[in-house]
Amino acid sequence: MKKALIAGITGQDGSYLAEFLLKKGYQVHGIIRRSSLGNTKRLDHVVQNQTLDERNLMLHYGDITDSSRLEKLVGNIRPDEVYNLAAQSHVQVSFNEPIYTADVVACGALKILEAVRSNLGRETVRFYQATSCEIFGNSKISPQNEETPLHPDNPYACGKVFAFHNVRLYRDAYGLHASNGILFNHESPRRGETFVTRKITRGLAQILAGKEEKLFLGNLDAKRDWGHARDYVEAMWLMLQQPLGGDYVIATGESKTVKNFLEVAFGLVDLNWQDYVEIDPKLIRPVDVDSFIGDSSRARTMLGWSPRTSFLELTREMVIRDLQEEGLSPDRYGLKI
Ligand code: NAP
Ligand code: GDD
């Protein structure tokens, strides 16, 4: 039975990846942070479904900034595949907390990479790093692919560039099977509540439930290449099944504005978003990336990967799930599940 270790297993992607690997027959180990209130909400359904005899998901306390703990976990578990998804992943927060973000996003990635290199032979382990299209920043080149020059435009992106180069270096210098997944935005009903898509679908459901009257947002003209997280975790796994490590852009190739997302989400329940949305200047970032659009030809050719979920299906799924969270029937709005 293959063993995988996931740092960041409690996050959006970590939960989908854990489910995906368990279905493939892996024993999955996850690193979770100790917190005074639970942080395993996205995994509880998996944990509860396990029987005592058949426990293929194991959670271990740890923090990506604690190299001694990472050394011990990697050394004891001896995983075949390591996925580093742990991050302070909010771009706007990274402007307020740049040092902490660098500790987690940049040094954290290097610490787990070094724990892997020093404990396990290069023939026995494969490493995945959650890189982001944010490394391209406001690029002059569109669409962006693996050859696009890096121009990070926020502290989070600077941290991801540091990690990106170290993964490439460990591949070249030590022959480690290490890959960067350069993922463009991906969303789902499990998306954190402060990212714009989830903030919109959750806000919409709260308006319909009569709990809120308005939704406060920032830059509505920004364009993002939005896919579904469930589709993107498959690409992570495919990268580690290749004979050699490499860097791959994962994207849909379609870019939409925040306004487009609002139109579709509110349109699904026959509301006009302009009646509900107000701009809060505090939500405008010191620098924002105007537009991302990815060219994932390399992944499509070499990994045989392509996205399965359309922008409309993604938005619909998120709206339906947030209506249900508020105890509202999607049927009432003509939305069939
Ligand atoms: P997410 O929902 O914010 O999850 C981040 C995960 O990292 C959580 O499990 C979090 O734990 C964990 N974490 C944070 N700080 C940690 C620390 N100090 N030690 C250990 N774990 C820590 O992010 P996501 O959307 O799933 O994204 C997964 C990865 O892909 C991230 O690295 C992100 O930067 C990158 N990425 C995401 C996207 C996207 O559009 N979603 C695109 C490109 C790249 P808690 O649950 O305890 O907070
Ligand atoms: N979060 C947020 N909240 N964003 C808003 C809001 C708001 O109220 N109003 C407008 N936006 C705009 C942001 O300025 C940005 O241009 C766009 O919506 C998307 O913001 P987020 O959903 O926060 O995502 P992100 O693109 O900044 O970052 C996400 O994707 C990256 C890949 O491009 C994160 O998941 C990163 O971790 C990831 O690397």
Give a quick account of the main beta sheet: strands, pairing sense, barrel closure. Answer: 7 strands, parallel
Number of strands: 13
Bound molecules: NADP nicotinamide-adenine-dinucleotide phosphate, guanosine-5'-diphosphate-alpha-D-mannose
Radius of gyration: 20 Å
Distance between the termini: 36 Å
Biggest β-sheet: strands ordered side by side in the sheet: 3-2-1-4-5-6-11
| Mean of pLDDT | 97
Poorly predicted parts: none
Distinct helical segment count: 11
Task: Write up what this structure looks like.
- By secondary structure, the protein is α/β, with parallel strands linked by helices.
- It contains 11 helices and 13 strands.
- The protein has helices at residues 12-23, 44-48, 67-77, 91-96, 98-119, 155-174, 196-208, 229-240, 258-268, 297-302, 311-325; strands at residues 3-7, 27-32, 57-61, 81-84, 126-132, 177-183, 186-187, 215-217, 223-224, 227-228, 247-250, 256-257, 277-279.
- The chain has a 7-stranded parallel β-sheet, sandwiched between helices. The protein has a two-stranded parallel ribbon with strand order 7-10. A two-stranded parallel ribbon has the order 8-13.
- Helix 9 (258-268) packs across helix 11.
- The longest helix is centred in the first third of the chain and has 22 residues, at 98-119.
- The protein is globular and about 60 Å long.
- It starts with a strand and ends in a 12-residue tail after the last helix.
- The relative contact order is 0.12.
- The model has no long low-confidence stretch (mean pLDDT 97).
- The structure holds NADP nicotinamide-adenine-dinucleotide phosphate and guanosine-5'-diphosphate-alpha-D-mannose.
- Residues 89, 91-92, 132-134, 184-185, 194-196, 199, 217-219, 222, 224, 258, 283, 285, 288, 292 line the site of guanosine-5'-diphosphate-alpha-D-mannose.
